[in-house]
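Exam revision sheet. Question 4 asks you to relate a sequence to its structure. Input first:
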Amino acid sequence: MGALVTAGSRPARVGEETPAALVEALVDLGADFDELLFLCRSGEAELADAAADLEAASAALHARTRETLVDQLAAARLRYGAVVERLRDLRALAARERAGHSLAQLCAEKSSLADLLRVERALTAALVTAADWQSPSFLHSTAPAAGRQNGLIRPFWNDYKRDRHLDAEGYERRYLTAMVDGPSTLRALLTSCGMAAFTTIVAFLLGERRVDRPILFGQGLYHESRLLLERLLPGRTHAVDESDSSALVHAIGELQPSAVFLDSLSNTKSMPLPELPPVIEALSHTDAYLVVDNTCLSVACQPFALARDSVRVIVFESLLKYAQLGLDRTNAGVIVARREDAELLAGYREHLGTNVADVAVHALPHPERSVLERRLARLQRNAALLADRLDGRCGSFARIVYPGLPSHPCYQVARRLRFRGGCLSILLRRSDLRLRRERALVDEAIAEASARGIALLGGSSFGFDTTRIYLTAARAECGEPFVRIAAGTEHRLEIEELADALALAVSRAAA
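Answer key, structure tokens:
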């Protein structure tokens, strides 16, 4: 008989033939504790900077305001310190543990501390900006109204935060340095969300009359983006299968478009993944823009590292997904463009009111590529494991779509990437009552996970610690509904058991 290992709240027996899975689970937990330590350090740094700013601006603050904030900042820093101490102990325990007796306790503490740090991040953001104003003063007769940024406000420039503000500028510089490969002529612009980034880009192209020829977009373009393009540019948009590189390059040569819109990895049921180098090569002989939604690949895709200086590239990403390290704490997006385009885009961001809120900036973890890449590797491992298991056990009554599966049309492109996505699609083969069956699949999956005592959430979006299942695009005006599994960062034993639960749910829903 093997050792008794607890995965989640349900005991699972691990025999002598599978010690590697237990070791891998413990290594996973150690990495999870490292990530939580990073979030602590990120929060502590925010608080330390805020304390220094308050000290510099102390003469400009009312005494009670200053005292309250100093006390609250100190208390928050103490709380972070206590969490750091506990995380170090847990990380050491995970490194020593090999019998598995403490696995359940380690998982429970990890989940509890992760949830606590979500709350602490929100409190941190509120504390950092508590003394500030959305319309800070640049002159005063008796007392300023600029909070910790007193003396840094310039009239007609950063005296109205809807237009621009110092909080965003600091994050934009860090993001560019940490997350983007490319020339030194790039600039990052934060927005209030990913769709705000997209609408800002479209308004720029329209307002600057850069779209006087056809617009080309991939069939897998995010459904809300596609809907806006078709409504704003009726009769001028053309969809092309981005999974067929030859067809895409041919369409560029034939249509001579003003702009090409692509998702670096599509969020549709078939999840096409365009091969960017030949697209960029085709566009290098034109003045067209290439607009890339990089939300589903994030730092794993670096269009500016591929593009020549002559190619007009604009990249955007929702920072609510992978970049937020599972916090799901605030809406934010980012645009990256070459400086000449970015200057104009900043003007459209101002006039459209799509700038990010100051409190949202401080709710985001500091951008750190190595931390994000390690998280993406875990999400990919879990998504690939789920896809492989479901494909092997449910292939007769469901098609499993994941770019890392050899059956995917873009597999040869995907296999060259460090990250192939953290989501997979489940397409039931029976067409009768398909939408009803897909809704039933979500219910069956949650019920089976509940019966086994393992974590699974029904909910939208992706990039979380806990795997989610969702009927995507159920009410979309364009795009077909499908069931999406967004893999979480569960340790190896948890994701194995979840795969079994999902396979059983698929078989029941498809019956």
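Marking note for examiners. The two ends are 36 Å apart (CA to CA).
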